[in-house]
Structures
1.
Amino acid sequence: MYNARDRNDTSSCSESASQVFSSENDIGNFVGVPLTDADRRKILFNCWYPPSGFSFPYVTVGAQNRSFQKQWLNEFTWLAYSNIYNGAFCKWCGVFAPQTISRSAKPPGSLVSGLYCNYKKAKEHYNNHQNCYYHKLCAAMFDNFVQTDADKPRDVRNALDSSRQKAVEENRNHLSDIIRTIEFCGRQKIPLRGHRDTGAFSLNETDCNDGVFKAALRRRVEAADKQTSDHFSKASRNASYLSWRVQNQIISLMGDAIQKQILSDISQCKYFSILADETTDVSQTEQLSLSVRFIKDTKVHEEFLCFVPVSSTTGKDLTYTILTQLSQLGLNMERMRGNTLLSKWPPKAIVMCKYLVPCSQEGP
């Protein structure tokens, strides 16, 4: 729905000639009113077009008088001129923008929220408008509306849902490049962050070290198609998915997927054994490192499972922590056939073995 200014507020667009061209399909007739599917078809496919000989009213900008140029309607197919309001509107955003503006960090411009009659830099303004995020969404919705309208008339919500799905697919492709870059850094065991890795992502080389992640992503985007490059260069800052928080979330999800695969491999084995070690992290928190040994495809595998924070380091409490964590991971303790307790635990290991050995005493 359009939200233009009142007709009396357009006095700044002074007319140089008094001409009356009326039409029920003038886009100004649909300003401020709910739109039906029939109204949308009128605006999108049969909107009023200035006839031959029509003189556009002049607008005083500084010391010069300027007017709307008819050729702009051919150059920008989404543009419509209203004789009622003596100004320009965006047809596509006027019809579809109410469902899309909330997804964009940038508010709608005058072509959507009001008429546009400042023609000093009109083409520059039009180009900026058609490159903004919400206009692109509306353009996709228009394409879907045209396709669905070719059949029997259907609810416009079908077109909106289809357009939303297209935006979702584009964001997924955008996120896929980020995930694969993080995966590359993880496989090569190299850190992601650099000395100065905050701020917007640039496809151009930076003067400072912005980290392996952004450098590798930059190379990946350079080798990709123009659509991928445009998505990274024009994405809103709140939808770039490049912050360290998002990186950590992706790493965490990758860890969960790897752990799930390891547990799946263990479940297909007859027996397994555990390895436990104690370590202290940078915050001086005691934690237990749990790994597992098993045979898969006639090969012995040793895989890390997880770190478990511990509040007590007595042999009995450590044993309880191990058994509880393994149970939470879904491992069948009846299949455990051994344990290895490492590090500085000789006295504790004796106590721990006292509790852990019964779990595996039914071995072959």
2.
Amino acid sequence: MSDELDPHQKTDTEPSASRAPVPVWIIVLTLVLLFLGAVYFDAYGAWFNNQVYAPYKSAEELALYQPKSGAAAILAHGQAVYDNVCGLCHGNDGLGKPGQAPPLAGSEWVVKDVASLAHVPLTGLNGPIRVKGQDWNLAMAPMGAGLSDPDLAAVLSYIRTSWGNQGSAVSADEVKVARSAIGGNAPSAAELAKMTPVERGHAVFQKYGCFQCHGQDGKGGVSNFNAKTAELVPSLIYVADGYTKTELIAFISRGERNIPRKNPTGPEPPHFMPKWGPVISPNELSDLADFLFSLKPKGENLGF
């Protein structure tokens, strides 16, 4: 009998297949890698658009850097000014904000004649207005009063042609005509040169509609529902007690978007301090601060 093994004979050492569960860590690692891959694709893949390349992430972002001319350049500039000056209240999508500012998208006011539309940003708005079938009662500062004619024309053109609006573009000449029709009482450059800083500051206070919320005498009193300041727009006559001139100018420039609420769970107060830095010139801000400091009752230490 031979001791050699038959190659076809099964032995106890022959490997065999068996079922076993996949380790949990492999499943978790696979899911994490899939998630990270999806995040990376969403951020940098541009959804297979072959016109988008690094370091740009989307066609919209790439378009911002493309050179523009003519009407496209005006609308791009108008959007930039809108986002900086108007978007805080009306939203960058033009849909407005409940209790604060009405929508511009689909608004019948947007496609009115240029003179009527320009009147709103040039002089502000105070009181009831009906937009898209909804009644609003608000105070809007004249945020366009400090814009140049070309800048305001670009903003109005952007608003009238965006978000489905079908209005025509607005020219700088049309804005100039609208401004001259409503600016008869504004002091001339020669008159401003003869004024004291306080007098010029009072003119700035009037020009930008500060009185609409703070009152003609700066004592406030306009209702501001759910504001912690007794539900009123605060008085300005004692700002000298809380600010230096530099601090006051900085505060006016940056504005105050979040007003403390009387009821923390209640709605946002409808009135807040706009960001005036992009709108009011540095010289006007200086004069405005001088005027506000002058409101403090005489005989008291102004602190500056």
3.
Amino acid sequence: MERLDASTRLKVDVMFEGIRYSEALGNAVEHALPNYYPYRFKLDEPNPTGKPQVAIPYLIRTPDGTMIRVKGNGESDWVVEGDKAAGYRLRNATAGDDIEIRFEPMPEWMRGQTSDGFPMAQAGVSLHSDMMVINVAPGCEYFLHKHDGESMRCRFCSYGAPDERTAHLGQVAGQLAIPGITLSRMQETVTAALGETPIRHIYLVGGSLTDWREEGERFLQLARAVKEINRENVPVTLGSGALPDDLLQQFHDEALVDNVCFNLEVWSEPLFAKVCPGKNRYVGYDRWIASLETAVSLWGRGRVYSAMVAGIELEPEHEMDWLQAADLCIAGAEDLCSRGIIPIYSLYWPIGGKNHPEYMSRLRSFFERLNIAYAGIREKNGLAISDKFMCHRCAYMQLECDIDRNHEDAA
């Protein structure tokens, strides 16, 4: 494959260029799944709301099922028109594009409460279309530790430490077990969601612990609680950090999960040490890859994944141009796929001060080169992303599922 297909290229256009505010976009948040990031108006941008920032929808879907995350950008040529009754269109007058879209809706269960009156929207369950993400312990203990004055948190991460923001989930720093009330609320919420929304994948995630064995014990507790109420046998993915072999064997023997995804985040030990100092200190680069290989021996090729933060290599401190960064990632994809491990490249959006045309142009060149090369690597190694893990309907910041689906359709 020498270039992206038209559908995937449209997704990349909107991901990188963003969408300018319109009343249609603002009004859609009344019925759409809300974005985690508000729309922030530029000083010289027309602002019909009179507010510096407003809520906007999170995800849009095109007629062929492609999922795209909404990024607000007052300088974009893309704009949403229409309303819920008449339907919405995404238009770009400069390029002449006019596309029918729909916003991912806000499900009714997210407005509901558990039997003890707790808001289901705060029970640690969220959606990316047909993927349910369960995170009942989001606080990461890497944020609590420093060595030689350096924080152990991953450089791209905004999870934060266990503190007042995680108090509603009962998460307390240093406490291994997930409170029973937290698990029961999660189970009620998951049951309500499965009854309303077509869910094809369940993804178990959470903040890291400095002891990988304790992290594994916490995820065993979570996975067992999910299995109790997963009566439709929706495929489940273990999204913890790397774990000791004996605990992986336990997950496998109890048939708690269908896939494993331990996020290495970046390729090469030196970069891993810089970007993920906590993972490097408390687990280690070689041990992380070895854990992924153990998972392949248990679940098989095509069932073991590693999310990668695609583009953090372009941060100035790593001293790489976009071509060097892409080639490093491509070499990593070759190595991991040869081991039966499938990397998933999620686009890294820089935070603060770098959302300017030159930086985004380099980031886009990097991301396209990586994904075009990686499609060939998957094909060469006979690997495909399992529909039990993720698909084009939920891959809102990734391209692999879009590229593979469109390639199959063209063939």
4.
Amino acid sequence: MSHKIFTTYSDELALLPNLWVKFWLAVLAALLVFCPYVLSQYQLSILNEMSIAVIGAVGLNLLIGFTGQISLGHAAFLAIGAYSSALLTGHFQLPFVLSLPLSGIIAAILGMIVGIPALRLKGLYLALGTLAFGFIVEYVLFHWDVTKGDLGMSVQHIQLGSYTIKTQAQYFYVLTALSALCVLCAKNIVRSKIGRSFKAIRDRDIAAEAMGIPLAKYKIMAFGLSSFYAGLAGCLFAHYQRWIVPGSFDISVSIAFIAMIVLGGMGTILGSVLGAVFITGIPHFIVYVTDSLKDTYPSLTGLIVDFKLGIFSLIVVLALLFEPYGLVGIYKRVKTYWTTWPFRY
């Protein structure tokens, strides 16, 4: 797989390296603007779910893909963000513009606290430690009177001043804009000194420490950033769904987010986006296929419904077997092919 050779640091660190990137980003932005005019309410709801998933996946990739710190407690930080915003906007009557960053900050503080004991853990032990934290959060949400346990909590619509976000189209513009902003911020983080320190720790933490990189500082920072993104995603999820229960943030959610970054491409922001879109879209695609075949092949439709989770898992496994670098690997190969065409190399 070929890589572009840069001759200056400014070219290498450029956010938009050439006119083609700027052009296609402009085309994508134009398409997104017109999506609510051509898509149904159901299709817009899928895109809204994807936007929320992108934010959570980007945050987890900053921790696992860029820093090499395995976490199975990502869903817990989504739950913290969701319930924090529900309490801030419901009990304390704070506006959404304040509850959104505060939810992320609360999750980030707890994430950094979790990151302190995690400094002495690596690999499987770190994964088990974060998994234990996830179970603790889930237990608290089930048994704390304030969160109302499995009865759930109602959450208000997003309010921006006197304007209330209610329709799928309105949510689409808000969630897409916030998702794009989070992706842009993450892209700048990984291009900065912080991102380079994350990569050095991931590749070889002993060598990074020998070069003067404080491991404790940047590992805790990685946990904080990842938790902040998860808190934002949880806050948006709560206001979008308008009803949250502890069961919405179990271990399966953490596994789904890990699948997003692995399938999309570890250590890449683009991989987080592609993986979130792919993993979120697969269940809806299976539903679409089932509905299309229910009249012609009713028995086959029932079989697909029974094995829906198995089909979803099989697609992920096959994708990883045939493309270990994820969707980003496919993108880079296609890009290299068109760049070098008609030559093979």
